[in-house]
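This follows on from our talk about sequence and fold. Can you supply me with one protein entry, sequence and fold together? Could you add the entry underneath, on a fresh line?
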Amino acid sequence: MARGWFVIQVQTGFENKVYTRLLEKKKVGILRDVLIDVRVPEEEIIVEKRNKKVVQKQKVYPGYVLAELDLPEDEMAWKSVYADIRNISGVGMFLTAGGGNRKPAPLTFEEVHDIFEKTGDIANKGYEVGANSIWEIGEKIRIKDGAFKDFDGVVSEIHGDKGVLIVTVEMFGRMTPVELEYTQISKIN
């Protein structure tokens, strides 16, 4: 059997319905021994509603569902699994199957790692707040990605649980706080 994470293309807005339907099919039928896990990758974002900051979940990849499958090697067996999943309302195809009768390829370890890093299911690049943090409040940094690319700033807050820092940068003669992910900044030596 070929075990791995596969990307299933679904109609946008049907992600949660397909997720629920896959879990139902896991209890009975041919998916019982094949379907290991199902995920709709989501990340938490902070939005402002009525002058209050609220944490909301947002789909990382709208229109896609991840499924960990242990696909059988036998051609007839994997095709019946493939057909069973494709018969779910809202499902298009396996992303890496090429759209036809070819066996889909699982995602690479790096791709799965990156997805689960975004969703917070695994630690973000090993950065943690506390004694092991590589960032310090008051430390000078350079922004290497995003709208403030090439700006220099100073770390003013560390939110290790969210994988973000608050950095103050000078804009138009004023110090302005900017929320950035760890991967968007680098140390200034």
About this structure: The chain has two domains: 2-119, 140-187.
